[in-house]
């Protein structure tokens, strides 16, 4: 049977397309098993030391991963030093931190497997290891993300990241845009069981807000004046601020949520029952949090031939 020249042209065209188009690769927990088998243990050692040095860093790394994934997907774009990009968004500004810790973990991996493990994967693993280091749950991190060649825009970040003044419906909608449901949103908000917030983010709540416990407001005012002191810090969970547990949720029925976006989770709305469930069943909170972190880590990753593997996380080299 003879094959016409048209058939030859068709097959050649298809082959060319297959060679050019990046593969739609899926993330896998075993992605580095053969190419860098010690990657995860190396990252864990680096992150555990960083959290030992400063316990607040655990919350900062979880937040950094969250803010990366919600803007342009989990692609390490937030790690790029771009003063006019996503780091300049109001929700990031001077509050997003932990860059040097991720870079240190990345360089530790580069020392054993140069050019193999992406910054996006280092950040995803760092968030898991940091959570576990302060008593939180562990989970299996899917791997194989690649790094963005550029930071996202300031405007995109401000549009996609939730705000500390958001209503319950705004939060549900925001998370829904990332294929995360209401339970995911409440579980991920539970990361506020660790970490601290700046005075500027809760000032309006502690002065003249009726939905706050008066004694709690008085306590927080001691380090957050009505003017000035924007960067003064207060724990998001006043009970066990350095332990990953369910006390964050226990604070909410007492109107002792620090941020407006915390308290709206228990304010007579649809999420009240989820909060109550997490109060009654801390194991359910831990399992839901782990599941939600896995889902969040799968938001629009670059895989296959897309993106690159940056040798340093702060620059596109």
UniProtKB/TrEMBL annotation:
One of its GO terms (cellular component) is extracellular region. Residues 1-25 form the signal peptide. Residues 26-317 form the Plant heme peroxidase family profile domain. GO terms for biological process: hydrogen peroxide catabolic process; response to oxidative stress. The record marks 63 as: Transition state stabilizer. The active site is at 67 (proton acceptor). Binds 1 heme b (iron(II)-protoporphyrin IX) group per subunit. Substrate binds at residue 162. Heme b binds at residue 192. Its EC number is 1.11.1.7. Keywords: Calcium, Disulfide bond, Glycoprotein, Heme, Hydrogen peroxide, Iron, Metal-binding, Oxidoreductase, Peroxidase, Secreted, Signal. It comes from the Eukaryota. InterPro entries: Haem_peroxidase, Haem_peroxidase_sf, Peroxidase_pln, Peroxidases_AS, Peroxidases_heam-ligand_BS, Secretory_peroxidase. Removal of H(2)O(2), oxidation of toxic reductants, biosynthesis and degradation of lignin, suberization, auxin catabolism, response to environmental stresses such as wounding, pathogen attack and oxidative stress. Belongs to the peroxidase family. Classical plant (class III) peroxidase subfamily. This is Peroxidase. The lineage of its organism: Eukaryota, Viridiplantae, Streptophyta, Embryophyta, Tracheophyta.
């Amino acid at each position: 049977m003879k094959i016409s020249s048209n058939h030859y042209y068709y097959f050649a065209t298809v082959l060319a397309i297959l060679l050019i188009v990046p593969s739609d690769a899926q993330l896998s927990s075993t992605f580095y098993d053969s190419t860098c088998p010690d990657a995860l243990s190396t990252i864990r050692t680096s992150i555990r030391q960083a959290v030992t040095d400063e316990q607040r860093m655990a919350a900062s790394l979880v937040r950094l991963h969250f803010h990366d994934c919600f803007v342009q997907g989990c692609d390490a774009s937030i790690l790029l030093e771009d003063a006019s990009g996503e780091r300049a968004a109001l929700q990031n500004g001077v509050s997003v931190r932990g860059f040097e810790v991720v870079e240190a973990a990345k360089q530790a991996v580069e020392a054993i497997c140069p050019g193999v493990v992406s910054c996006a994967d280092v950040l995803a693993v760092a968030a898991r290891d940091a959570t576990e280091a302060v008593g939180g749950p562990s989970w299996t991190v899917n791997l194989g993300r690649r790094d963005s060649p550029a930071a996202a825009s300031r405007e995109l970040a401000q549009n996609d990241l939730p705000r500390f003044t958001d209503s319950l419906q705004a939060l549900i909608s925001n998370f829904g845009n990332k294929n995360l449901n209401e339970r995911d949103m409440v579980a991920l908000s539970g990361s506020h069981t660790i970490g601290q917030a700046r005075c500027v983010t809760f000032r309006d709540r502690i002065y003249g807000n009726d939905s706050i416990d008066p004694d709690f407001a008085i306590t927080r005012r001691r380090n957050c004046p009505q003017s000035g002191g924007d960067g003064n810090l207060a724990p998001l969970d006043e009970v066990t601020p350095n332990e990953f547990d369910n006390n964050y949720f226990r604070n909410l029925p007492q109107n002792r949520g620090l941020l407006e976006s915390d308290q709206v989770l228990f304010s007579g709305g649809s999420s009240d029952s989820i909060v109550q469930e997490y109060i009654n069943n801390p194991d359910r909170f831990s399992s839901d949090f782990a599941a939600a972190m896995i889902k969040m880590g799968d938001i629009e990753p670059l895989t296959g031939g897309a993106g690159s593997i940056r040798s340093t996380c702060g620059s596109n080299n």
